[in-house]
Amino acid sequence: MIFDPILDLFRGKAITIPPMDGALRPNTELDDASVLATMTAPDALAWHQGRLIASSGADLVAVGIGVIASYPAPISALTTSNSGALAVALDPGELLIDGQAVALPEGLRCITALAFGPDGALWLANGSTRHQPSGWVADLMEKNATGSVWRLDSGTFTQIAGGLAFPFGLLPDGKGVTVSESWRHQLIRLEAGRQTPILRQLPGYPARLTPAPNGGAWLALFAPRNRLIEFVLQETHFRFDMMAEVARENWIAPALSSGRSFLEPLQCGGIKTLGIHKAWSPSRSYGMVVRLGADMTPQSSYHSRANGNRHGTTCALEVGGRLYVAAKGGDCVLSLDAGL
């Protein structure tokens, strides 16, 4: 893959997808995991006042208890601070901290992730200037890179970086922040005014990052990469015709879940044989959570493969030796042993 850019000049652009191997070797851990709670499209997770909370559409749910707050629009991100402050972002581009609306600067209207730093400052990932978080698939298929990362400290917003391809996860520390950049399939480091890739060529689209209590981090990947979708991303005229003429849920594009409609692409041939869905077949949806070491290299992973149904994993949170996973495409929150 190192020589692909040079070879592309002679053969055309090569479509190469990194294999799932080593620490990313497929397994069935997510499909075998216990369901802690079922709810519609759980997305972001946080630990607040001694309990696990999750976003489910416009509802904020205390897992095992029920809905504790409802908002006028779907929740796009949430986080809590060490002091107990609760920050919630809404899909139309709104931010509330402990229930109070915060005025946002121009261009900050697509909040995909929130995280408090050790100093109490709030970091914000702005996925796009052209779409709301719920419009992520359109942002990908338009091949946009208008995202940014911001920091809110003492009432002042500062843009830390721009030109990002849908930042979707934040992991701040005392020196800077690690960011998952979905459309470029990588993690980057923003520190001292520099932007440095630290984990590239992921086999899927990375979502949120959360700290692991004993160092490192948990990374959720919400959908897989596959050759057909990568090919469509190279075909500009076809892609825009598809977006104009085909219903969004049936685009040849990543999805949070699949197999629910006969109109979806990727259903036959190498997908099913004798009515059995192959676990290793190409898929528009997948579930994966990766344990990253202190150097941000993958150490182990949990999967829900092509034939599974715990797909669209957007967030994983470790508390007290348990790993909680939001499977947005599977409509459930999972509970696993964090010591795989």
Please write out the topology.
Elements (H helix, E strand, L loop, with lengths): L3 H8 L17 H4 L1 E5 L3 E7 L2 E6 L2 E4 L3 E5 L4 E6 L5 E5 L3 E4 L2 E3 L8 E6 L5 E5 L9 H6 L5 E7 L2 E9 L2 E6 L3 E6 L4 E6 L2 E6 L4 E8 L5 E8 L2 H8 L1 H10 L26 E2 L2 E2 L9 E6 L5 E7 L8 E7 L2 E6 L4 E6 L3
Antiparallel strand pairs: 1-26, 2-3, 3-4, 4-5, 6-7, 7-8, 8-9, 10-11, 11-12, 12-13, 14-15, 15-16, 16-17, 18-19, 19-22, 20-21, 22-23, 24-25, 25-26
Describe the model:
The protein has five helices and 26 strands. It is mainly beta and 340 residues long. Strand 16 (186-191) and strand 17 form a beta hairpin. The chain is globular, with a radius of gyration of 19 Å. The two termini are 30 Å apart.
Which stretches are low in confidence, meaning pLDDT under 50 for 5 or more residues running?
A: none
Strand percent estimate: 35-45%
Count of strand segments? 26
- Largest sheet, spatial ordering of strands: 1-26-25-24
> How many helices?
5
Looking at the structure, what is the overall shape? Answer: globular
The residue fraction in helices comes out at 10-25%
What's the end-to-end separation, in Å?
30 Å
What is the overall pLDDT average?
93
Report Rg.
Answer: 19 Å
Main β sheet profile: 4 strands, antiparallel
Structural class: mainly beta
